[in-house]
Amino acid sequence: MLLDVGRFVRNDIRGKLCVALFVLALSFAARNGAAFSLSGQAGAPSAPQQTPPVPTPPQPTNTPPATGLNIVVLDPAHGGTDLGARGTGGIHESDIVLEFAAQVRTALEAQGFQVVQTRQGNANPSFDDRSAMANAQRGAIFVTLHIASTGVPGTARVYVMHDIAPGTDATGLIPWDRAQAPFVSLSRKLGDQVSALLAQRFKGSPAVAQTASVRQLRTTAAPAIAVEISSVTVEDRAQLDHMAPGVADAIARGAAAFRPTYVVPANPGERP
Amino acid sequence: MTPRWRYWFLGALFLAVAIAAIYLPILRRNIRQAAKLQQRSEEQARRELTQPTVINPSDPKVKAKLFWASGADDGTVSPVTVELPLSNEPVLRAKQVLNTLLAGPVDTELRTVPSDAALLAFYLLPDGTAIADFSEALGTSTPSGIQSEQMAVDSIARTLEANVPKVQRLKILIRGQEVETLAGHLDLSQAFLVNANAVAGPRAAATPMPAALTRALTPATTTVKLTESPNKSATKP
Fold it and tell me: Do A78 and A18 fall into the same domain?
């Protein structure tokens, strides 16, 4: 019988047509396999296929507990076409901060924090996009990493935002351009913790946080600091690389020391 | 062609080659110069039109305080007293001190603003808000970094604070435009509070004013009268 079928397929046009239809049906079934229930109800279509999800900031894998600081949003500054500070030896701020971020991340995770990074590769999210990643979290702090083009090489400084006049609109929400306002004192606490640890490790670094109008910090509704390391002007890049473990440890330990003092707001973006 | 004509022809040809050998390098140099001229930016042309504010020797000489880097390498600025003939008119006075600041200190290591930056315009609003419009070089030549950018703004704000008491707030524009940051870090979208009593130390840095006040200065939302000189006023759209 199989021989007859083979002859039918080879010699008869209707046979060829049947094979073509069979192949088509198979491919259609394979493509829409997911649309059929796997629970034994063959032929029952599943729910309609959903539209692709809107890209959202990377979320931590575990849901944080109801209280307490759990998440650190880590921001390697610049990226993409924005190289940041550039040294004569071809050192780019955008590259170095990404490598620093990897070490800071490991140190933070060792302290039990979940880490959300604003960029993984050579992307350049906007200031607002980076802030949005922090503002969407509950119980997070924000750390932005920078390499300066000035300053004594081998030192590091922490910056926090100036006092900003707080304000609310009719809805009671914090205005985006003043998102940092309710968090400035908390940011200073966190900044001082990290600064003290950096000063211990890197001689010549200030022991308290400095204030500066850092654009990235202004729109961040969380305790937020900028850590700036000096500098891209070093002749040997290894000088900067040697600083990474110390910087990572200071940030992680500073964040851990800050944790008990931070009462996390009930909802993301709420006042502390 | 007879041999005689051949000699004339070869002679003429040789002469043409010799002339070309002399003329072509000159032509090449001229073309290069012309290309350079074409590359000159709109800003350079504007800078040529904007005459630097000349210090008038007949103005009374006063001890002006100009803030340059302290030299401590910690991002702080410190005052240097310079005797200058300064106008009593606030806008002219502000232009004079800012141009002196841009000219730089004797010790170039203490410079806080790039040498190629220029003050294109300066306006003072009736509420004490100063609008200082700088050339693009302020953004492109200031070393990128929080410390260096804050130091540049501090030196401008504190120099105005010390010498032009009418200036209460400072809004910095680059080539007439509002920009997000100075060189990638420092927020220029807000105006800086200038007349706050200076506190020693790094925390005395120029403080941005509330956004509500800044918005009132945004040309897109309001029409403001800009005083450019005592006898002249302009309206900015």
Answer: no
Mark whether A9 and A84 lie in a shared domain: no
pLDDT in tens, A221-265: 999 999 999 989 888 889 999 999 999 999 999 999 999 988 877
Q: Do A27 and A78 sit in the same domain of this protein?
A: no
Task: Pick the more confident residue, A13 or A161.
Answer: A161
Please write the tens of the pLDDT for every residue from B199-232.
333 344 566 654 333 333 222 323 333 333 333 3
Count how many Cα atoms sit within 13 Å of the Cα of residue B177 in the half-sphere of its side chain.
Answer: 10
Whether A149 and A257 map to the same domain: the answer is: yes
Taking an 8 Å cut-off on Cβ atoms, the answer to whether B145 and A206 are in contact is no
Which of B77, B146, B172 would best serve as a mutation to test chain A binding (most A beta carbons within 10 A)?
Answer: B146
Chain B CB contacts of A206 under 8 Å are: 74, 202
Chain A residues near residue B211 by CB distance under 8 angstroms? 164-165, 167, 175, 177-178
Q: Which of B147, B189, B210 sits opposite A165 (nearest CB)?
A: B210
Q: What is the pLDDT of residue A226?
A: 98
The more confident residue out of A4 and B144 is B144
Query: The domain containing residue A20 runs over which residues?
Result: 2-37
| Residue A270 within a domain | no
In a domain, A116, yes or no: yes
CB under 8 A, 24+ apart: contacts of A77-82: A77/A144, A77/A145, A77/A146, A77/A216, A77/B184, A78/A124, A78/B184, A79/A119, A79/A121, A79/A122, A79/A123, A79/A124, A79/A125, A80/A122, A80/A123, A80/A124, A81/A124, A82/A124, A82/B184
Q: Note whether A11 and A112 are same-domain residues.
A: no
Cβ atoms within 10 Å of A161's Cβ, excluding its own:
28
Percentage with pLDDT > 90 across chain A: 56
Instruction: Tell me the shortest Cα–Cα distance from A151 to chain B, in angstroms.
Output: 6
Residue A92 φ/ψ, nearest 5 degrees: -115, 135
Instruction: Tally the domains of chain A.
Output: 2
Residue B80 parent element (H or E): strand B77-85
Whether A244 maps to a domain, the answer reads: yes
Identify whether A60 is part of a domain: no
Contact A151 B185 (CB under 8 A): no
Percent of chain A scoring above 70 in pLDDT: 72
Full-model pTM:
0.71
**Which chain A residue lies closest to B73 (C-alpha atoms)?**
A151
Phi, psi of B236 (to 5 degrees): -95, 130
